[in-house]
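cache lookup: miss for this entity combination. No prior model stored, computing from scratch. Input as submitted by user K.M.:
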Amino acid sequence: MRGYAGKFLDVDLSSGEIGERKFPDRILRDYVGGRGLATKILWDTLGKKWETVDPFGPENLLLILTGPLTGYFPGTKVCVSGKSPQCNGVVGSTVAGEFGVDLKCAGYDGLIFAGRAERPCYMMICDDQVEIKDASPIWGKEGRETIRYLNKKSIDETKAKKPRYGEVKEPSILYIGPAGENRTRVAVVLAKYAHAAGYGGYGGVMGSKNLKAVVAKGFGPLPEVHDQDTMAAMYESMSKKGFEREQFRRWGTGGGGYYFGAGTSSEPIRNWQEEWHDIEAYSGDEFDKFWAKKYWGDFGCPVTCLKLAVLRNGKYEGAICDNPDYELQSYGGTNLGIFDPEVNIHLASIINEVGLCGIQGGAVLGLAGELYQRGILTKDDLQGIELEWGNPEAFEALLRLMVKRQGIGDALAQGVYRAALRIGEMKGTDLMQYAVQEKGMAIGGHGIRSGKDFISNPIGFACSVQGGDHGSAAHFPPEGDHGELSAILHDSAVYCMFAKSVDNAVVFPFYEAITGWKLTADEWYKEKALRILQLQRVMLLLGGPDVAWRPKTDDDNPPRFWEPMPSGPYKGKTLNRASFKRTRTKYYRAVGWDENGVPTPETLTGLGLGSVNSKLKAAGFRD
Amino acid sequence: MSSQPQGEVQSELFKLLRENAQDCPTSTQLSHTPHTSSYIDDLNACKRGICMGQQNRVSINRDYALCSGCRRCEIACSLLHEKRIWSEASRVRVFMFVPGIEIPHLCFQCDRPKCVDACPESALSVDEQTGAINVDAQICTACGLCIDACPGRVPHLHPDGSHVLICDLCGGDPECAKTCQQGKWNALTLSKRDDDSSTRQQPATPQELTRRTGTLILGERTLREVWDQ
């Protein structure tokens, strides 16, 4: 079992009990780590009663898992999961930073949290010393205050434990902001200032457990690997490929705010009413003026695609964020009618500080903007806020209501899908035509109508087992570097897909060099990844308790994506319904689902998932 | 290289690697891939003074504002010295008291090193060839007096607690600076060691360097807000 620390921590926050857990080799070989292992753990623990599990209830699990490649692969992440309060299935949500490395160096591959702490707490892991500590001084606090407190406290405590060690480096911290504490469905788990495990809504799950943060410091080495020389040689060669990506290194995703509008017509603008703009004031060059560090990255990264943006003066002095990355440039900018880099950096900084998801939060603010534009939501509904497009103060005020779940903010805190339902009920009208989402999750800022975005795939969101996650879009054929089975590789072996500069064909031998376990592409695409995909699909379909997705019917694009593009060089273009249906049918067949998108008994039993088949039958998914 | 990677893809990558390794003065004399066992053996031979003369002494210059925080210097250092990826055992450590303010911290090679004077066991000495501080791990008792004597509080104990760790300049061709320049970050660069110590960077603690760099990047007010000094 090389590449793994060999044990996980089992933490029951209700009782305060902490135990160690090991998984047999065969489980690790099949489910790897991260997203794959999360799926397995969730199915085994909660599968039988999945529909009744409240994502915010103590029965849900919060998983923070590394993978065997974490730390060795140039570009590090850690995977956060659980039953998602957005899609009510399982999402593998990854976040960059050193946390995964520190955790493995402390001797653990992952953390499994169950229950709910009586009082706000945080967890401190320093090698084999694991403690649940009081978080009352930081409960309610925003990002930078939380980091400031935990950094200082943890360093002081570690120094006291190791008086002769010398200066002690900071630990790695994962934490939530007020948006998570207040159990919104649009909250993230954060690292540093702007790194977030976004999709899935696990900030709220962490908040529901009264867990403010997890702090890890490992003094040991990364676990031993199977073939040190090949690992070192491949680390170098993969890094070199990363160094060569000049364009991406220079701009990161920070040129996207202009490019995805002007270049590919696939950027959310005013709640996706448009996807094209040509505003050069919103280009990478203009953002560049605020970049205090032009290359910013995390452990082992050869690309360092992040840029540190800081506002040193002016109205919004003190704002800090990364780039902002494209998703925040669009959802915290163009989607609200904002085309000013400085204002966007300010809003992105606030979104991070309160622990909101840039995508889910920005999407629901955009939905409110359109409902206001159409006179469906009024100033009275919005506690006096005049929600005009492009007005940062108005959107910030509404954002604060959302984080506190006050007034209309409580509906918005439920995310785009549920907010559209709730406000629709309130107004006695169907608003789903304005909700750009997939299975409870707002879609990443990558429209598919123009056909020019890198996703540009009519079934990408519709058939994904992670709903609107643009990092896990479905693709026909499912095998190869461009589909969900590939995303499952990155998120289960747990490394950064942005830093990944080689084909998957190189990842498999690297996996073997680390673990000593041979893994062929065929085994991955036709068996292991497919098994994880089925489990995710089944838990997504089972859903509950507040939503249930209809297979096929709900495997569709949001209504807005079927409307013709209103502007830009691709004006009039839209998706083709017949071709969409054909591709969907082909995809269903290729991944072993029946004509309604339900995994067939043969598929499930063939992958050793007999119990899953019985559950589907009992839940009424079989005739 | 004791065992060459198998398979076509790997061989191709391996070739690229070798070409890459030829950029540095030491590696031109080595036929091995960086960080692999035989490379490390050869480099250790260099450290014994085979290929570096005193006239080629180097200093490592640090530009903290350029540090990306990638910590590839820690990886390179620990792969060379420990044959593992082991950040805490790296002779260069990147301190990040404030996200965005990353400080690669390693020995400044003072002219009259206080750490050497402070060692009660005479476990520390200045390398005649490179000017680096050599630690005799067999003699060192990990008392920590050298850490307190260092004006930059640079040395730290090996995580196993057995001895103190101080940068040895990798025998004159430091891996940390190599990897930093390879990635074009250039936070760590090399220059010929100047005999006039007044032009060299002076030792400072990670806290002091965070204060200086943080003020530069964030401004004084914001730095106070994000960091409890």
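stored under new cache key. Chain B touches chain A through 68 residues (CB under 8 Å).
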